[in-house]
Design brief:
By secondary structure, this protein is an alpha+beta fold. It has twelve helices and seven strands. The protein has two domains: about 230 residues, Rhopdopsin 7-helix transmembrane proteins (Up-down Bundle); about 150 residues, Alpha-Beta Plaits (2-Layer Sandwich). A hairpin with a 2-residue loop joins strand 2 and strand 3.
């Protein structure tokens, strides 16, 4: 197989890979409208497809070395393909910045850098530079882009399998294009004719093809992983407030309860209920009631500790488990929570809305008691808090239910 034929085959496979990737990312971006990474990857993939297609067409029409730096349409098309591919890599980098919740680089700076790159690539025509010039420019650009992507990925605290898969591909692409730069640059800068169709150069293209397939598999796994994460989040959280739902709360609490039982450490379980919440819905409407629920969850998240487990138990009732917390510590923390919630005032039209909570608390060092027993005790204490006038905390003790 000749060098040109090998070049065409490699680029044809790349076009298929980019086309499949672009289609998949485009479809994914429709389901994740708030996420920009998939749309950036789709745009970058479409541009890579276009750039590769133009490069193959241009290369097939250039038969003489002099045509590379002429103003022949095929030569200009090849330079355009180089700049399109460069811009595509920049959009893929932007996609990773979005994926990892990192700030995009300054728009004016990136525009200026790309403009300089564009001018340098097309300077080959008036300066009559050899075809190695375009290879050098795109090699520098791809290596720089891959370096930025690898840096962003390695800066993450934890890399999952999908991240490592894509990271491996980027390492290979980076070293492949750095090697391509290394074998072409000396001849170009020494004034010799650099062979851009050498066996070594073709090997770089084949290695890049394999690496790009790896990268796209990794990017696809990243999107799939986020889909799984979102499905798990939806399955474990209350859609209105974002708090854990009852099932997820009980699952996480069981593990904390088992640890407390093993280590013989105290654990507190809390049930609290918004006072007269039905009256809020009746007088102000369910939209205001939803705002009250969301505000309650927000205050709880800000007040409770990171290790505490908090969830919506049902309706206007919430539940929390405070691990490694004795009775005095739990009482102080919950009184502070009760006061903060009582201090929250919502202005509805010309009326002020203030909602209080009644709290039932039970604290134990697990031995013979189960989590279900603790929930029952906290519920009995909550009932007493309501019976005693609401907006208060009642601790469970023996004889409370009968009393």
């Amino acid at each position: 197989m000749g060098e040109l034929e090998l070049y065409a085959v490699v680029y044809a496979i790349m076009i298929v890979v980019f086309g499949l990737g672009a289609t998949a990312f485009h479809i994914t971006s429709q389901y994740f409208a708030d996420e920009r990474d998939a749309s950036e990857w789709a745009l970058g993939s479409w541009l890579l497809l276009l750039g590769c297609l133009l490069a193959v067409v241009a290369r097939s029409q250039i038969s003489q070395l002099e045509l590379f730096w002429s103003y022949h349409w095929a030569a200009l098309l090849r330079s355009l393909a180089t700049t399109i591919n460069a811009y595509a890599w920049m959009r893929i980098w932007f996609g990773f910045r979005y994926y990892y919740r990192q700030q995009l680089p300054n728009a004016k700076l990136t525009t200026a850098i790309f403009s300089v790159f564009f001018l340098l690539v097309f300077s080959a025509h008036p300066l009559q530079l050899s075809p190695a010039w375009a290879v050098i420019m795109i090699s520098v650009w791809i290596f720089g882009g891959v370096t930025m992507i690898v840096w962003d990925m390695c800066s993450q605290k934890k890399l999952r399998v999908a991240d490592r898969f894509a990271l491996f591909g980027f390492f290979i692409v980076g070293f492949a294009w750095l090697y391509r730069l290394w074998i072409i640059s000396p001849a170009f800068f020494l004034g010799r004719v650099a062979d851009v169709d050498s066996t070594a150069d073709s090997l770089v293209l084949i290695v890049s093809l394999v690496a790009m397939i790896t990268i796209y598999l990794g990017m696809t796994l990243l999107v799939y992983q986020r889909l799984v994460d979102q499905l798990m989040l939806q399955a474990s959280t209350d859609p209105l407030t974002g708090a854990l739902n009852r099932r997820a709360f009980l699952e996480r609490s069981e593990s904390l309860f088992a640890v407390a039982k093993r280590d013989r450490k105290p654990i507190a379980l809390v049930l609290f209920d918004l006072d007269f919440f039905k009256r809020v819905n009746d007088e102000f409407g369910h939209q205001v009631g939803d705002r009250v629920l969301k505000n309650t969850v927000e205050v709880c998240h800000l007040t409770l500790r990171q290790q505490d487990v908090f969830g919506r138990y049902g309706g206007e009732e919430f539940i929390a488990v405070l691990p490694d917390t004795n009775r005095e510590q739990a009482t102080m923390a919950l009184q502070r929570l009760r006061e903060r919630l009582a201090d929250q005032t919502m202005l509805i039209g010309e009326r002020e809305l203030q909602v209080t909570v009644s709290i039932g608390l039970t604290v134990t060092v697990p031995d013979t008691k189960s989590l279900e027993v603790l929930v029952k005790e906290a519920d009995e204490a909550l009932y007493q808090a309501k019976s005693q006038g609401r907006n208060r905390l009642v601790q469970w003790h023996e004889g409370l239910a009968s009393g």
